[in-house]
Fold this protein.
Amino acid sequence: MSHLLAISIGPVQEFIAAARRTRDLWFGSYLLSEISRTVAQAVEAESRKGKLIFPAKSNAGNVANVILAELPGGDPKEIAAAAKEVAKSRWREFADDAFRQINGFIRTDIWDDQVDDVIEFYAAWVARTEDYREDRRKVMRLLAGRKNCRDFQSAKGRAGVPKSSLDGRRETVFKDGDREAWTKKLRLLPGEQLDVVGVTKRLGKERGESVPRYPSVSRVAAETWLSGARKRNSNDLKKLNDACKKLVVKGLNTVREENYQYFPYEGTVIFKDRHPDLQNELGLANEDLIELKAALKSIGVEPNPYLAVLVADGDRIGAAIAQIDSPDKHRDFSTALDEFADEARKIVAKCNGVLVYAGGDDVLAFLPIDQCLKCSRDLHEDFGKRLDGYGSPTLSVGIAIGHFMENLEDLLEYGRTAEKAAKKPDRDGLAVHLHKRGGSPIRIRAKWGENPDDRLIHFAELMNGKIIPTKLPYELRSMAKLYENWTKSAEAIQQDLYRLIAKKSSIGENTVREVLKNSISDMDSNKLLSFAEELLVSKQIAVAMKQAGGEA
């Protein structure tokens, strides 16, 4: 008898969401994908020529934590049990490697209590009928029910032992006492504690990776400044590289991304106000930074400390899958998603960003601000092209622009909130949320068909060209609040708007009217506020574009 088997692997929260460093975030995603890949391979091997449906192949770039497979023979209970064992075994490979690196700093009793209770594995199966759609619906409903009936293990907590700083779920595995020998290796903050998952994420290595390396948010934020410095004066950038190279032996991190190799160092060195923290972390003396500070002074321009967090998610994917009436058609659909994920990696790299995860219809990436809109559009267009013919699913994209010194968990939440806003009220949207330090967030959202990305870039170019005064957005927002309850003719608003434009413009009212006429026609107070907020977001993009272009 043939079966349809569905498997879910976790914990997603601990592997992906709980993160203080980008390293925690990225490796948690990689770790979950690799465990899921191992499970997919085991299902293929154990199921007597069983065939994967989602993912379509086990060697996909990223494997999602939900697996669906067709089993032409064998006992699905035994196949699921075997897959569970390989999931645990693959997790132990990562954990054991981390343990070997710092076992002198680990409380073995607590580590042993935790390490075998990490993997969450749920499986469900149904006998196949001739109605694939109904079979898939049943098995996914059973899987959801099985996940709700969680396995509750007996508590193994230790009284008086601090909890992990990442999520507080488990006790620290660190011994009391001197931490100095392990602080650099683990990139620990004073008082920071990690459990077995946290240590494994901090020390785990990708296949072929000798040293754990992953760009920080500061390196992504510094990219606009660095690319601009590269265009202005390559000799000044060489001096900066030479100064940083000498700090590597003292513990300065390097990054592996190919597009960052022209400056393959931790971004913290670029921001002068972060140098005291860098000194504390690496144990540097003041004289160790003399050459670095001189190189930064020769370049002169202050770096922009903001970056973009991009979160994208497919729209109506469930409805598209519900219409698929055979395993082969579902495999074709899965293949299209795998191909999109592979292309997403390339798109993010071309935009000088750093991909955290691309699997199925989900994308999470960090990007320099000047490239975030182009990246979003390219992802949206590629997704639509590959999924055309399956009910035309679309891709909603949320972008959060935030300061690199914000907590990583806050930056991620900003991005996820923007992605949710992009889906409302009618999906297929782009939302950009600007989080300036010391102010309320500015939020804009529009349908992709309205070309909001082109509009934002156009306004940014007009600001850099001094056609739109940079103070105009703030005055427009004040005007919008003044007219908030205005119920009479919109003509008064437009006339007041033209008066303000004439007052603020240095190159002539008619010129500004001409470039903005499509944006300010039929203006009411709500449209005026939206327009002002678009200009405020464009102002931040303009700063990044100017810096990345090599302008002072």
Q: What stands out?
A: Residues 76-102 form the longest helix (27 residues).
